[in-house]
Design a protein that fits this description.
The complex is a heterodimer of chains A (about 240) and B (about 280). By secondary structure, chain A is of the alpha+beta class. Chain A has helices at about 5-15, 30-50, 50-70, 85-95, 100-115, 155-165, 195-205, 210-220, 225-235, and strands spanning about 25, 140-145, 150-155, 180-185, 190-195, 240-244. Chain B is of the alpha/beta class. Chain B has helices spanning about 15-25, 45-55, 75-85, 115-135, 155-165, 175-185, 190-195, 225-240, 255-270, and strands at about 10, 30-35, 55-60, 90-95, 100, 105-110, 140, 145-150, 170-175, 200-205, 210, 215, 245. Chains A and B meet through helix 1, strand 1 and helix 2 of A and helix 2, strand 5, strand 6, helix 4 and strand 8 of B.
């Protein structure tokens, strides 16, 4: 008699491939489990990547999900992780085609789900700056909320994402070129913001632990741009800590 | 909130987060799928913390696959423990099933063969989980669409062996008993009478769907009359117990779900005369 381990391996093989036999009765009912696994996987992907799903349509999304599952099967008992490698997969799968931008759209949607489940720090208000001596300002380090994810793409994926939040989504002109921005969490829910490249460079430096002065010079910000970005950070409640 | 009363509760689904807070229906407890609350933050975590302030909580895991021969995922177990510290559930449950092999997870409640080997392995993993989590687990019988030629025990004999070896209790899903009776010819009456009265600590009822000749445990409709009848027989044997109405797909408005829970409360009252 097969050991439990062997039996589960043969059951698993039969779930992956209908041609593989497994000692169960009735054998035809294995299809229930085979369908459950593929539907659960695909629907989880659909929920994680609603804009990719919308852009490619149901039929092609099903094909992509099936190929993706063969290449990157679920590795966790927690469905949250099912979509983690989807952007990597699309990047490989679509490289050199007119649809290479879908990989970056998927990456943006994955970052959005990461933002959605990140911890929230009590935000620090702009008034905290008032107590800091002007000469100490440039040595300040800004700790951003753990939900902030920065992303830059050679494709206009932030515009694609935004356009597809509407009921009727106009096509986005791919010749619009590179875009950058961030995903974040506001009051528990994920949001997406398009930013200019200098802003993303600045925020990225802050995330890496640069001082305000170093982040400003590294991003090449002028005073006006800096004022605008700091106002945005405080208004979006993205500052979780301030220190030297 | 304290221990879970012997009355009916509902599963916490995101579609009801707002309504549950606004309407504060009189239900005995809420049950949440543990894996949905593994995160560091976000809307779902906030909602459970708020709901938790109003109702006792049961955390119901669907992802450990404790009957998997390849072992218990310690990382997953650590996340269950973290969720327990954060939400302080009064009950913690999982399933008598397996879920992964060869490194692949099927994210489903896969059936076990009813053998001494499988009972010992499941009991060992349940014990490992109980030791790590520092609590007794309730283990739920699952619905199955196939049976194994290898099985030498009945499903209830298998469960009794797991309880005996691990010291866990049972979460009796009467819909799953009904579904297995229909699909696999299981004797539902013998199942109920085959379990020791003290072994069951919670009951699940749910709706199912028919797909050709097969009943599917779909959790997407009202509880059917034969399942209510089986529920009545179960609480007559196992006593007044916390009873969860599961409704996870085609989720109705909160009021309709609460009405199903009230039906369970009425039956509890008819049989035991003490429901809320």
């Amino acid at each position: 008699m097969a050991s439990l381990r062997e039996l589960q391996r043969s059951f698993a093989a039969a779930l992956r491939d209908p041609a593989v036999a497994c000692a169960v009765l009735p054998p035809a009912n294995l299809a229930v489990y085979r369908n459950n696994a593929s539907i659960t996987f695909r629907e989880t992907l659909e929920r994680t990547f609603p804009v990719v799903h919308r852009r490619v349509g149901e039929d092609y999304f099903r094909q992509l999900a099936a190929h993706y599952r063969q290449r990157f099967p679920s590795r966790h008992g927690d469905l949250h992780w099912v979509g983690r490698d989807f952007a990597t997969f699309l990047h490989e799968h679509l490289a050199g085609t007119d649809y290479a931008w879908l990989a970056d759209l998927a990456q943006l949607e994955w970052l959005r789900t990461e933002s959605a489940v990140a911890a929230e720090l009590r935000p620090i208000g702009a008034e905290a700056l008032a107590s800091i001596a002007p000469e100490a300002l440039e040595r300040l380090k800004f700790g951003l909320q753990p939900s902030v994810r920065l992303f830059s793409s050679p494709f206009p994926v932030f515009s694609v994402w935004e356009a597809n939040q509407a009921e009727i989504a106009p096509p986005v002109d791919q010749s619009m070129g590179p875009e950058a921005g961030m995903t974040l969490q506001r009051r528990g829910f994920p949001e997406v913001r398009k930013l200019d490249a200098a802003a993303v460079s600045f925020l990225s430096s802050l995330q890496s632990g640069f001082t305000l002065g170093d982040a400003v010079s590294s991003a090449g910000l002028d005073g006006q741009a800096l004022t605008r970005l700091l106002a945005m950070l405080f208004a979006e409640e993205l500052v979780g800590s301030l220190g030297e | 909130m304290g221990p879970i009363p012997a009355s009916a509760g509902i599963g916490l689904r995101s579609a009801h987060h707002d309504a549950l807070l606004a309407e504060r229906p009189a239900i005995g407890f809420i049950e949440a799928h543990t894996e949905n609350y593994f995160h560091d933050g976000g809307a779902a975590m906030r909602a459970l913390l708020r709901a938790r302030a109003n109702y006792p909580l049961s955390l119901h895991g669907v992802g450990l696959g404790l009957g998997s021969a390849e072992g218990v995922d310690r990382d997953h177990l650590a996340r269950v423990k973290r969720a327990m510290r954060r939400f302080e559930p009064a009950l913690v449950s999982e399933h008598a099933c397996w879920g992964h092999a060869g490194g692949e997870h099927f994210n489903d409640l896969l059936p076990l063969p009813y053998t001494d080997e499988a009972a010992r392995l499941l009991a060992r993993h349940v014990s490992e989980a109980q030791d790590f989590l520092g609590t007794q687990l309730l283990i739920e019988n699952v619905s199955a669409y196939v049976s194994f030629e290898h099985s030498t025990l009945t499903e209830w004999e298998f469960l009794v062996a797991v309880v005996g070896e691990s010291g866990c209790a049972l979460l009796l899903d009467v819909n799953n008993v009904y579904v297995n009776a229909q699909n696999l010819g299981l004797d539902a009456e013998a199942f109920i009478t085959g379990l020791p009265p003290a072994s069951v600590r919670e009951i699940h009822v749910a709706g199912h769907a028919r797909n050709g000749a097969v009943l599917i445990d779909s959790h997407g409709s009202k509880v059917c009359e034969p399942v209510w009848e089986l529920y009545r027989r179960a609480i007559a044997r196992f006593g007044a117990l916390p009873t969860l109405v599961e409704w996870d797909n085609d989720i109705p408005p909160l009021g309709e779900l609460v009405a199903e829970a009230q039906r369970a409360d009425r039956i509890l009252e008819e049989v035991h005369g003490l429901a809320a």
